[in-house]
User: What shape does this take?
Amino acid sequence: MEHTFNPPGNVDPEAVREQLERMLSNPLFKNSKRYPSLLRYVVEQTLQGRAADFKERTLGIEVFGRDPYYETNLDPVVRTTAGEIRKRIAQYYYEPAHAGELRIDLPIGSYVPEFHPPSPERPAAPGAAHEAPVPDPHPHHAVQVRYLLAAVATAVCLAALVLWLRPGSAGALDQFWKPVVDSPSNVLLCVGQRRFLATEPESAGQKDADFGRFGDVPVNKAGVAVAPNLFKLYYMGSQNVALTDVVTIGRLVALLQSKGKPARIRGESVADFSELRDGPVVLVGAFNNDWTLRLTGPLRFSFERENDTFWIKDRDHPERKNRSVNYTTSYLQLTQDYALISRVLDPTTERMVVVAGGLTGFGTVAAGEFLANPEFMRESLKGAPANWSRRNLQVVIATDVINGHSGPPRMVETYFW
Assistant: This one.
């Protein structure tokens, strides 16, 4: 006979179900089919005392309708979906409005959810920090990005070193990067990516333009677009990084290496919350990087979009939308782009985070140049408060775009707190 499981921490099962529905109605989940399906299944089964049956193959069969003999290594739908669920849970509870809610977590290395009653203190980060992470189901993501960046990093390394070591010119740059460089942990550089065609929310009805050259995108039993061969693999979002972001990452890798600071690179689509808690983080990209949007959302300056218009939002002056770009504009006709640089101590991860993102790739390149060039940094921070290096800060910059090429960055506005 079925029975109701009493979750740990004396959490009422009905309260858990109510919280689950609240979470699944959030845009982080409701626009997907796979994430709610898996999370709802493991939560309900756990409440009924059946968590012992949670095996990857079993979940693939029960939740996603896979064949009983399907190869989990070739079709890691359960692992990838669970990883994305963990990330979206972290983003959900990152919002201050949800801080006092009952917590539903999916710990790293397990498919068994945990339930925690609301705490009067700041909520703990999802997942147990002491647990060993599960192996990355897509290790080739990071490898390919590293190979791609190696050539760029080599090309800019000498230039960055010369600028860094120029006598009397790197004071402001040193102060800006000091909290990152002085951290005992390695730096994580998380670069934005296009959406992966084999995951939600993209579906067969939302084909990437790149696939048009190769015919229709095949669809699996669940109605999700898949790539059947290695050739198409390289046209998937999780396998690609925009060249403008590569240039920016290359500059920052060279700068950090010149200071003896190790850095590792992860694509936004595979980086999870636990990695962002390991040490200082540099987020590259804006609208292609969910972590950037989540971090800057509560700050004074953030990224905003309405239809085809993208702009840098000023919370103190919400009516101001002049720092914008219309995406229907031909890139050869674009004359100006804007970018946002932030350096903040993230209250959720308690780690220093640096953000470099533009409204388009041209702005991201300008942001990277600003962060790696001591001359730009020194000129832009001349009027900063005396103790600015010990405060959170945001810098809005602009750059002229001429025939598809970004010019040097110009500081537009700064904010310290």
Observations:
- The two ends are 59 Å apart (CA to CA).
- The chain has two domains: 13-116, 139-193+241-416.
